[in-house]
Amino acid sequence: MYLKHGLCGCCWALRPRYKRLVDNIFPEDPEEGLVKANMEKLTFFALSAPEKLDRIAAYLSERLTRELNRHRYGYVCIAMEAMEQLLLACHCQSINLLVESFLSTLRLLLEADKPHLHILATNSFVKFANIEEDTPSYHRSYDFFVSRFSEMCHSDHEDLDTRNKIRVSGIRGLQGVVRKTVDDELQVNIWEPRHMEQIVPALLVNLQQHSQNDSGLFSAFPSLFSGSPAEQTEVCFRELLCRAAYGHINNAIKPVLMHLDSHSLWQGRGFAVQCFQIIMYSIQSQHSHLVIQQLLGHLDANSRSPASVRAGIVEVLSEAAVIEATGSVGPTVLEVFNTLLRQLRQSVDYQLTGYYDNGGKHKTSSIEEKKLQDAVIKTIGSFANTLPIYQRSEVMLFIMGKIPVPGIYPALGSPNSGRMIQVMLLKSLLQVSEHYESSNLLTALPSSFLEPLLSFTLMEDPEIRLLVLSILTSLIDRHLIRWLLKAGIKRVVLSVHHDICTFQHDVFVFMQHAQRLYRHVYLASREENSGHSHYQALFTLLAVLSVELANEEVVVDLIRLILALQEMTLSNQECLSVFNRCGIHALCAAFLNLLSQLGPPPTLHQHITQVIESRQKDAPHLLPEVMFCDKPRGTSLIAFRLNYCFIVEEDRLSKRKSIGDAVSLQHWVSVNKEDLSLIWFFFLSEDRGVVEEEERRKRMEVVERFQTAPFEEIAAQCGARTSLLQSKLNQVFELIIRPPPSPSGHLAPRSTPVYEMKFPDLCVY
């Protein structure tokens, strides 16, 4: 045995053939590169005798180690190239014979202190990662490569170009590890926390630095940064996240949160928002709610952190909700809003105490807490917009239940704290209601929601009253009429589409609460601390009611309310300030002007126009362009032309109208029946005072006739009326008891009328 080994060492011709083939691929001068002809012979031999693959790989690894120790890096590169070609040429069934030697060789190169060797090893590993294997390997481990590639991503080499190359290689190496292991359940579990805690921070470090330095140029000229750490990092990060299954999301997101905490990256809208935008766009859509839950939990965990940190997390939540927008934020929808409302209440407490901890050691400012509160309110609106209508209704009821309602729930904490909480929660409610689109009024304003909401209209705080008016208007307005009024457009042509059944149901629901709403409007208009915006909000609410619920009863009630308001301002018994009187006069003028634009009669429009022109000359302070704005901006008297698309019932509209009015209405409807696009108008052809005077005159004539006329004349008139009534009743009874036509076409003999039948005594009670 000793002689054999000695001869093999001394005589090259006696060495095994695979060793001779391996030695032949190395040239005398390493700069000449791999000897291709000899490499083909080695490949052919390896394919012909696959049982020798493990020996070939072991000898190549031994030869590479020897050259590496002698610092002959040219031959090291040749050896690595030979191993790569063997890997690519071998069949999948026999590749495991090569892999162990190949991976051990890569470890040697990665442990060296030469950057170019690290890059060489990474490139070889990436090629190996792209090879699909059919045969699983139970004992293969990639822990070393995860650790080493992550370390390369943090390289701080003094040369910038070399540093970037090392980092790019590290990122590509991690990408190769992910590709090699993520789809094979028998391989190492790359989603374990110990691996994610190395991979994710390594990627975020490169993404963070390049997003700070080159974010503008990268977005404008991405081709200039091809192959840069930023580009490679984003590609690798997205590939990692898109492969994450349901049970792996939390392990992938937790290191992101830890990295942002440890490097104080929550402040502002920079890196944290960009990072979670990548996450939300990369993961599978059905898993997006898991990211939201992670962020909510992290927000609770940081409830004792500075306001800037909490605001940053809330801002990320808002952006994530907009990206998700799948109609659901997970199985616990109300828990999302409960967490946000809890943060809002804590922020109010911190603002009042001046500290964001119980020990009173860490100070906070009102400005920072208000920024946080605005961010939370915006986020509540963003989340609500992703929900279906029925869940938005539940959210509004949920928020309303959290508000300390006067007379029902006591204010929490001090009076100032209770007031601030009310304002914050009402602002949150306004954010939800502004984009609420309900198909019927009962869903938008149920009694359980409307009653506590109306109780706020009588509070002394002007901000709360204004918020309540805005919420009511948003929920009733379905055609964005309030935005047209705010825009100051002088003339508007608005097409309003209503389903007749839904419209009648809405009117019925509204009439149940109408009188209470009118009472609150009446009382709210006389509050001493009301400002310009309050009267503008009252006018907007009344205008939306008159358009969205264009029913004669509703409009008549609104006119009565306006007349009552005007009468209140003219009464000396009411203790109203000059500003209140001017504001109510402006409210009445604006609403009556709007109402007169809805249609005939022209006399009403002419009268209102004359009054407005007179005020413009003599009393401009009684007009809305002065009273509705802190800074007058021109006329706010808006003319509306409303096109209602639904079938109008002529008989119902002609109720309580004279015969001439009914005939003219039916004629007008018959002209416009073809397109069913009707202009709704209300008959106000007679002045209220003239009508009352005529009714009073008729009553006096009746009284005078009964006092002065002879008895025979009075009896004759009453008898004539009785005879006329009896004849009408007979006609009605004839229609009721008329028998149906017989099949022969002849009328059946008339039966005895019911009212002439004689029944037995036992049937009479």
From TrEMBL:
SUPFAM superfamilies: ARM repeat (SSF48371). GO terms for biological process: protein localization to plasma membrane. InterPro entries: ARM-like, ARM-type_fold, EFR3-like_ARM, EFR3_Homologs. It comes from the Eukaryota. One of its GO terms (cellular component) is plasma membrane. Belongs to the EFR3 family. This is EFR3 homolog B.
